[in-house]
Amino acid sequence: MATDTDKMSPTEMLYAGMQLTRPLLRNITARVEADLDGTGISVGERAILEVLLAVQQATAPEITQILQVKRQLVGRLLKDLVARGLLKSIPNPQHSTSNFYRLTEESKAVIEGIRSTEMARMTQFVERFTDEEIRAYFVVQSTINDVMISGYGENDASE
């Protein structure tokens, strides 16, 4: 999708940028899959391991909420990771049907290695942008995500 951004209004440019989301997501997923080759970890499993690295312990509903994905997918991935010995399933005293999940030493080492490789590559890539551009990108992406979850609010175009 080649566009002449100099002739676009800010609204048109934002819309064009949002149109890049689907191919960007596909490309990111393909890159992550390629980088995970040989680790025995899938993209979905990587996401769960990364969440648990950050929060230490979580239930399936908490992981589902953090990742904003389907509950069934998280349940299937958790079951497989536990069966492979990559996660510990710990009874939850407050909810008998919703266990806590934690990384094992093995899975912690795996996800830390994956993240280390990714961050080294990101460090090279980040040099293409100024700090301000990266901060602006983060703010725009976060805001778009929030708006897509909650709706357009006061500025809803359908009103």
Automatic annotation (TrEMBL):
Domain HTH marR-type stretches: 10-146
The domain of life is Bacteria
Q: Gene3D superfamilies in the record, alphabetically?
A: Winged helix-like DNA-binding domain superfamily/Winged helix DNA-binding domain (1.10.10.10)
Cross-referenced InterPro entries? HTH_MarR-typ, WH-like_DNA-bd_sf, WH_DNA-bd_sf
Sorted alphabetically, which Pfam families does this protein's record hold?
Answer: MarR_2
Identify a single GO molecular function assigned to this protein: DNA-binding transcription factor activity
Protein name, per record: Transcriptional regulator, MarR family
**Native organism:** Ruegeria halocynthiae
